[in-house]
Automatic annotation (TrEMBL):
Pfam families: p450
Tree of life domain: Eukaryota
Name the record gives this protein: Cytochrome P450
Lineage: Eukaryota, Viridiplantae, Streptophyta, Embryophyta, Tracheophyta
Cofactor names: heme
Organism: Oryza meyeriana var. granulata
Length: 544
């Protein structure tokens, strides 16, 4: 290992020397060219860039970035290797970049290491702004996120809710520290993953299969986030020095593909049975009694129908690798973000029992008036539209605790100006989501959990969560690349928060104060001290 790092150090020194002399020659050749004014930032070290990437990790990087913003201003320039990264921490500048100049800031930054690592299958999140991205995004919005399509997944949500409340009830009966009980957020993560697997593949698979897929996805994510960062520095060299990491990553991807393809092929077979191979008149009637675990619609169904234009072979269907990449993106995009937001919201309701009681009063009033049977039944998806305080609670949770403190990075398609500074073409640009949503100039008592701010007369009344009019909070991003799953995520949060409060009274464990200020960076920003709570059943009947 020491020899490897010595070789890497020698390579870096040699590269630094070459870059230095190349820079001297280049600067003399273009000496008469006007110097660009780049966003300010801390001093850099050749090849490495800013030392904060070396001396900090996790939340420490975020805290350091916050201090650098205080010193250098809302537009901060950082270097990772030779690459410039710009971080925007002002809501007006974010609006100018993402909305007013939306098309110009809609690309994704190119990473040389992506091609070297074989990660070039296009998805919604990594595609550049253009026809392919529009095709993928339009398909997701129309065929998954549209309210009419979302209603088709209602049986899956009901089944997941029943299993989630059953697990929470048994967990409470067995004791929160019982062997194998796990934390509350782990129970949330399983439930959200179970739901997304069903929506993706059209099948309510058994718990063992869900956990196997979740483990494969998580192993790949953890490995990628911890072991592949080195490829951001001189990938042509590091991919050779760390070839073992590449092989391990490829093996994990094959493991995931081996789990996905039987589910995809089953859906393909079902589609052909119903519509025929050419998608025309039914070739054969569907099975007389499909399993109750099979859904009538799935994300995979829509992907099997997609056709993309290929320069080499004209219009074609998606390859297996492309299908796997899009399915993996679907599962990643809505699991940790939603389960993290759900944990933060439930933690705030435990911490603030008066808010929880007010929410429960609203739930009881709506369910009682709709069912005529008293408040002993679960909350339906139709009930959610009649609960303004529930919506305020969810919005306040997303404002106070956005699951991601940054969005997926953007990149300008051409050099652009922002607040008097030049943002060069291809620069990695990100936005400080958490800082914008807790800005004291925008919000009253920004560090407090106050759902009432989103009701009539509050400082958040009528807030535009999409950021189209103005940006005051942006948990889903803003502009052309805003998260297409915004509607899916808010529905899931409202549905599960309402039913969890209807089913249980959430109270603090004796001697276990809930900490809603401590944060830890995993894939999302989670509670440093995971939520523990005492759950008192309210007698609500939860059924699939």
């Amino acid at each position: 290992m020491e020899l490897t790092w010595l070789l890497l150090l020698a390579t870096l020194i040699l590269s630094t020397t070459l870059i230095f002399f190349h820079g001297k020659i280049g600067s003399s050749a273009t000496g008469n060219k006007k110097r660009r004014r780049l966003p300010p930032g801390p001093a850099t070290v050749p090849v490495i860039g800013n030392l904060l990437w070396v001396t900090n990790s996790g939340m420490d990087i975020m805290r350091t970035v916050r201090r650098l913003h205080a010193r250098h201003g809302p537009l901060l320039g950082l270097r990772m290797g030779s690459r410039l990264e710009v971080i925007v921490a002002d809501r007006r500048l974010a609006h100018a970049a993402l909305v007013e100049s939306g098309a110009a800031m809609a690309d994704r930054p190119e990473f040389v290491s992506r091609g070297l690592l074989g990660l070039d299958s296009a998805t919604i999140s990594n595609s550049n702004y253009g026809p392919l991205w529009r095709l993928f995004r339009r398909n997701f919005v129309a065929e998954v996120a549209h309210p009419a399509r979302l209603r088709q997944f209602a049986p899956a949500r009901a089944a997941v809710l029943a299993e989630l409340t059953d697990k929470l009830r048994r967990r409470q009966e067995d004791g929160t520290d019982a062997a194998g009980a796990g934390t509350i957020v782990q129970t949330f993560q399983y439930a959200m993953f179970f739901l997304l697997v069903a929506m993706c593949f059209g099948e309510l698979v058994d718990e063992r299969a869900v956990r196997d897929i979740a483990a494969a996805q998580r192993d790949l994510l953890i490995y990628s986030s911890k072991k592949l960062r080195v490829f951001a520095f001189l990938p042509a060299v590091t991919t050779r020095l760390f070839a073992g990491r590449m092989k391990a990553m490829l093996a994990m991807r094959q493991r995931l593909k081996g789990m996905f393809m039987p589910l995809i092929d089953a859906r393909r077979k079902r589609k052909n049975l119903v519509h025929g191979d050419d998608g025309g008149v039914a070739a054969a009637p569907p099975p007389p009694a499909e399993k109750v675990t099979t859904l009538p619609h799935s994300y995979v169904d829509t992907l099997l129908d997609l056709r993309i234009n290929d320069d080499n072979c004209g219009e074609r269907a998606l390859t297996d690798d492309e299908l796997v990449a899009l399915c993996s993106e679907f599962l990643n995009g809505g699991t940790d973000t939603t389960s993290t937001a759900l944990q933060w919201i439930m933690a705030e309701l435990v911490k603030n029992p008066a808010i929880q009681d007010k929410l429960h009063d609203e739930i009881e009033a709506v369910v009682t008036s709709e069912s005529g049977k008293g408040g002993s039944h679960q909350v339906s998806e139709e009930d959610l539209h009649k609960m303004p305080y529930l919506k305020a609670v969810v919005l306040e949770g997303l404002r106070r605790h956005p699951p991601g403190h940054f969005v997926l990075p953007h990149a300008p398609a051409e050099d652009m100006e922002l607040s008097g500074y030049t943002i060069p073409k291809g620069t990695l640009v990100n936005f400080a989501v958490a800082d914008i949503s807790t800005d004291e100039k925008t919000w009253e008592r920004p560090r407090e959990f106050v759902p009432e701010r989103f009701l009539e007369g509050g400082d958040g009344e009528g807030v535009d969560i999409t950021g189209t009019r103005e940006i005051r909070m942006m948990p889903f991003g803003a502009g052309r690349r805003i998260c297409p799953g915004l509607g899916v995520a808010t529905l899931h949060l409202e549905f599960f928060v309402a039913n969890l409060v209807a089913a249980f009274e959430w109270r603090e464990e004796e001697g276990e104060e809930v900490d809603v200020d401590g944060e830890k960076l995993e894939f999302t920003v989670v509670m440093e001290k995971p939520l523990r709570a005492r759950l008192l059943p309210r007698g609500v009947v939860i059924t699939a």
